[in-house]
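note to self — DONT lose this again. spent like an hour looking for the file last time. sequence + predicted structure for the chain T wanted, 422 res
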Amino acid sequence: MSGQLATASEVLATASLRPVGADARARARLHLLDWLACVAGARESEVAAMARAAEPDPIMRAALLGNLLEMDDVDRMGRLHPGPVLWPAALAAARAIEAPMGVLLDGFVAGVEAMVGLGRTLDDHHYAFWHPTSTAGTAGAAVAAARVFGLDQEQVADAIGHAVSLAGGLWQLRHEPGVHTKAIHVAHAARAGLWHARLASKGFRAPRAILEGPQGLWAAMTRSPRPLALAEGWRLFALSLKPWPACRHAHPAIDAALALPPAVLAAGPILVETYGDALAFCDRPQPLTPGEARFSLQHAVAVVAVRGRPCLADFELEALSDLALAAVRARVSCTVAEPFASAYPAHYGARVSAGGAVSEVADAWGDPERPLGVADVEAKLRALAQWGGLGRDAAEAALQCCAAEDGAPIAPLLDLLGQWLQ
């Protein structure tokens, strides 16, 4: 490493190259299953049709779909989504060198370490303007690909340096309905990270103080960056998995509303109390598109009140025109409150009050404190495969691909994606 003291990018490189144990690989398989579910569910979307026309590579088509339904994995502290960025980068690298399943899984674990490690240094100022899944995701994708390629610490640090130097992803897309740039953020991060790793493998050098330097990322894109912290184990185990097809900031309110007796939600005002970013992203009383519906606390709570447990159909155009849902949305008000504001972002919580009854959750279902089990993720895969026009056999094929032995080739997985997205 350069100099006497390691730079932040060198620290991330070192952390990403530790040996990966069987427990981390098993967890990575669960996240692979979750990502495949998200891709399957989006394969009949408008974005999927455009991806087929614009992008010849099935892996990069999948990269445009993994975040589309808002059901992808998430790191609460980093406020980012690793799976849809890292799996395409790791898969493309593994395809290039015909790496086996175990190497693919290790690439994902390493990519999570770098992406989440960097993402957790980014402050509220960064999150107000920049999409962390894109900014930190490019570095994570570079590390995922670099680990698959078998690069050494110097080369991994170079890959990170290139990635961070070109990181971006502005949130203006949130203010213009109907745009598709968020999907491009994710796919671009995956594709760019793969390229940075390939260039680093051939000797392209990068600035090592790209994070902490006077013209580095922290100086340019943050005001109060958090210290880069090393994890004892793998950060993979801190990730959350999502059961509901909505922005993660809406999930605590969904969980709290589901815990109330349906009768109390049937009439009268409904109050949602939560943390600031939940309102910043999801205070949307009159969503006009499916994308806006997934970012609406009011719509999410209305779905629970009228239909019960949310499913994908509840956030489509038909649901937006449902007069019963519109009537409930008009009764929902949202505000910031304690203890949720202070607990965030370490904990995503909410309180829902209606008809004299109150329900409160400190953590959303799918967080490490309330994890989804293997059976839950398998059920999610089957449901999303059906939604995406695939039969039960396709879901079972995906389960088999994810269960392949560490030394098995990934060709069946690549073939599966090709069939889904042809």
